[in-house]
């Protein structure tokens, strides 16, 4: 039976990270909300879709172009942190330890999914490096297979360019226990150890 509630559930299920149980829970919740709250939700969704765009310089999501980060003259313009998604920009910004610029690739290399270098914003990164005073590129892709492949690809691509290319360190989370860490995380922690 295909009811309006089933169709709404299916729309929620299409969202990343939402399984059928959560989708159903969200659908029931929205149907039971007062019409005013549903209208606010719909308006917020429509407004975000209409007013958000990709920054023409770094390809981060923003409500203005260039984005506030690219527009901020106080940012360190000698370094660019290369990330996969706009969510990654938010994560690095929350750390409070980075004050440079960003470049959002809009994904990672994944040949099995048909995502090659031409599907990412790599060409635009190279153009930015030609026209600026960038001294360092920090590669901050995810530590998964696709992220590592992307990092290696970028490192090789940037090798002939007279710019320092670094990779973010990886290892154990603060407050984590060694006994619960997986092998890859422990290997990264040992490989990226620091002097004391």
Main beta-sheet strand count, sense and barrel state = 4 strands, parallel
So how many helices?
A: 8
Give the termini distance in whole angstroms: 65 Å
Fraction in beta strands: 5-15%
Task: Spell the H/E element sequence.
Answer: HHHEEHEHEHEHEH
**How many beta strands in the DSSP annotation?**
6
CATH class of the largest domain: Alpha Beta
Structural class: alpha/beta
CATH topology group of the largest domain:
Dna Topoisomerase Vi A Subunit, Chain: A, domain 2
What is the average of the pLDDT values?
A: 91
Which residue ranges are poorly predicted, with pLDDT under 50 across at least 5 consecutive positions?
A: none
Q: What is the correct CATH architecture of the largest domain?
A: 3-Layer(aba) Sandwich
Radius of gyration: 21 Å
Helix content: 40-55%
């Amino acid at each position: 039976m295909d009811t309006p509630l089933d169709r709404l559930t299916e729309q929620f299920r299409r969202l990343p990270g939402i399984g059928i149980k959560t989708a159903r829970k969200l659908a029931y919740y929205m149907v039971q909300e007062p019409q005013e709250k549903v209208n606010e939700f719909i308006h917020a969704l429509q407004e975000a879709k209409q007013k958000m765009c990709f920054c023409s310089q770094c390809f981060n999501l923003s409500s203005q172009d260039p984005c506030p980060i690219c527009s901020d003259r106080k940012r360190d313009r000698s370094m660019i942190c290369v990330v996969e998604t706009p969510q990654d920009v938010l994560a690095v910004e929350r750390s409070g330890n980075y004050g440079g610029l960003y470049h959002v690739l809009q994904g990672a290399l994944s040949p099995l999914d048909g995502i090659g270098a031409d599907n990412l914003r790599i060409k635009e990164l190279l153009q930015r490096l030609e026209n600026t005073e960038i001294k360092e590129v920090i590669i901050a892709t995810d530590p998964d297979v696709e992220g590592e492949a992307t990092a290696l690809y970028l490192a090789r691509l940037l090798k002939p360019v007279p710019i320092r290319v670094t990779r973010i360190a990886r290892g154990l989370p603060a407050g984590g226990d060694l006994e619960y860490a997986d092998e890859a995380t422990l290997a990264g922690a040992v490989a990226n150890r620091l002097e004391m």
